[in-house]
Amino acid sequence: MDIQGLKNALGHLNIEDNPAVLKKKSRDFYWFSPILKRELDQVIGDLIVSPKNEAELIEVISTAFRMEVPITPRGAGTGNYGQAMPLSGGLVLNLLGLNDIDEPQIGSVVAGAGATIAEIDSVARFQSAQELRIFPSTYRTASIGGFVAGGSGGIGSIRWGGLRDLGNITRARIVTVEARPRILTLEGDEVLKIAHAYGTNGVITQVEMPLAPAYTWVEMIVAFDQFDQACGFADDLGNQDGILLKELAAMAAPIAQSFFAHHGKYVCHDQATVFLMCAAQNLAALKSFIVRHKGEISFQSDTLSPGPLHGLPPLFECTWNHTTLFAHHANPNLTYLQILYPYPHHLKTILRLKNLLGSEIIDHLEFVRFDGRIGCMGIPLILFTTEERMEELIKIYEDHGCIVFNPHRYTLEEGGMKRSDPEQLAFKRENDPRGLLNPGKMIAWDKPEFNFSANQKYLFSGIRR
Ligand code: FAD
After folding, report:
1. Which phi-psi region, left, alpha or beta, contains residue 89 (left: φ > 0; alpha: ψ -120 to 50)?
2. Relative to the CA of 72, which ligand 1 atom is closest?
3. Are 190 and 250 spatial neighbours (Cβ–Cβ below 8 Å)?
4. Is residue 224 assigned to a domain?
5. pLDDT at 1
6. C-alpha of residue 150 to centroid of ligand 1, in Å
7. How many CB atoms lie within 10 A of CB 227?
8. Domain count of the chain?
9. Average pLDDT, integer, range 238-252
10. From atom 36 of ligand 1, which residue's Cα is the shortest distance away?
11. Which residue has the CA at smallest separation from atom 9 of ligand 1?
12. What is the CATH classification number for the domain harbouring 304?
């Protein structure tokens, strides 16, 4: 790789090689995991380039291709498995400058990959009375390109499912990594080639995302004496077809009270909680449902005085991986796992594992629609001791029929379904023939013979320290 040649060739663009900035822009939230923290702490790129438009981007890519420099696409850097970290050094491709947002149409909006999710949602709301169907809890900072390439779901998944479910990304425009980069447009099934591919097989420059009518969402915390009551309530509520929800999460004590600086004061230390967002027009119905389940409303956003939100951050910033963030801040020994519980026995499985693992885990559940059925993902907080114990815990979850998306690994496959995706691999072969995009993240490319069933850990030999 010819870094000096690259700097010389791209000197007329917005480039940066200040070591402090390079270090900052070469990391994401990998430190959620003590294992990734140890493995990736020294990773650093050589140059940041921030193209302002697609033409500049194409120039950057063809130059990097010629000089055989690895390219790591980057949005806001909020991924949490080292996804946006340049393992082999090289070019950090900052895409936040591609941030145009077109006038929303009925049912969809087209935006540059670098536009933040909050900006897109706000344009949709103010210009068309619509809203994004799904967004991550990093709404305020994350880019839409980063969400499509690195995310999986979030607020809205209780209604609309996962990000990779057909229809949740309408269209994506990508640039290939070749001597003469091509522009491709993907729709339908084709979008899945780049969705959650960590930017390993194309650089997304623009996406079209589906919109739904914008509602007034009331935020609520419902408290229960016991965690099993909170789980039962959330599961039943998720299945109430007439009550429109945008978010539904259940948390064991003492998460809410101990870890949330703003919302914790509304909850007692030993109460289990359900955090939810409900459409205002369904509030009376929701309250009746809460009475049936003997829950206690401990926080309701539209009843606060003097202003509607009383200076509080949005409630969804207590959910998904924000829960992990605040728990880790409160106790740096707390880390996490990401679990898919077996449907329809998810509640039984959760409670059985809770009894088995005791205080080593604190349960956090996110309710999600899977193929029309309400099931649940777990993001349990784990009191970290050793990597070996983490592996044992994963095995225990798997032995109970759970699928574990291991957040302590930086590869697509190990963080996902533990098998390679032939479509994403074939797409990489076509569009990144030199393998320059985000090296070390796709095992299928680096080491096709890797045996996923042998329970071994993949160590990318190209990590530059
Ligand atoms: P980055 O972190 O910059 O990049 C993510 C991945 O996408 C990287 O592999 C990068 O190389 C690639 N990439 C970025 N832009 C492009 C592009 N234009 N073309 C090709 N590849 C690209 N995720 C969820 O799904 N749901 C959540 O609710 C959620 N909550 C989170 C809460 C916290 C506190 C944190 C730290 C993370 C959370 N995440 C969540 C993970 C992360 O925030 C999301 O995936 C987010 O959308 C990433 O956006 P980003 O712009 O920060 O992307």
Report:
1. left
2. 11
3. no
4. yes
5. 79
6. 5
7. 21
8. 1
9. 98
10. 78
11. 198
12. 3.40.462.40
Give mean pLDDT, residues 115-135: 98
Measured from the Cα of 147, ligand 1's closest atom is 47
- Angle formed by the axes of helices 387-399 and 346-357, nearest 10°: 140
288 Cβ contact list (under 8 Å, min separation 6): none
Residue minimizing CA distance to atom 46 of ligand 1: 147
Amino acid in the structure at residue 234: A
pLDDT at 304: 75
391 is a domain residue: yes
Residues of the chain with pLDDT > 90, as a percent, come to 94
Q: What gap in Å lies between CA 151 and CA 153, rounded to an integer? A: 6
| Short-list 51, 153, 121, 63, CA closest to 93 | 51
pLDDT, residue 250, reads 98
pTM of the predicted model over 0.70: yes
- Least confident range from 195-199, 237-241, 390-394, 458-462: namely 458-462
The answer to whether residue 188 is domain-embedded is no
Given a cut of 80, is residue 310 above it in pLDDT? no
316-334 average pLDDT score: 97
Residue 307 pLDDT greater than 80, yes or no: no
Q: What is the dihedral of CA 122, 127, 131, 135, to 10 degrees?
A: -40
Assigned token pair, 231: 């789980």
Q: Which domain holds residue 233?
A: 217-404
Determine the average pLDDT of the residues in 252-272: 93
Q: Is residue 248 part of a domain?
A: yes
pLDDT band at 308 (very low <50, low <70, confident <90, very high): low
Please give the backbone phi and psi of residue 144, each rounded to the nearest 5 degrees, phi first: -70, -35
Give the residue, out of 141, 321, 328, with the most ligand 1 atoms within 8 A of its beta carbon, to mutate for a pocket test.
321
Please report the DSSP string for 239-299 in residue order: T-TTS-EEEEEEE-TTHHHHH-TTTGGGS-TT-EEEEEEEEGGGHHHHHHHHHHTT-EEEE
What's the one-letter identity of residue 83? Q
Question: In sequence order, which ranges of 151-195 are alpha helices (DSSP H)?
Answer: 157-160
The answer to whether residues 390 and 382 touch, using CB atoms and an 8 Å cutoff, is: yes
Mean pLDDT of 411-439: 94
For residue 149 and ligand 1, the question of a CB distance below 6 A is answered with yes
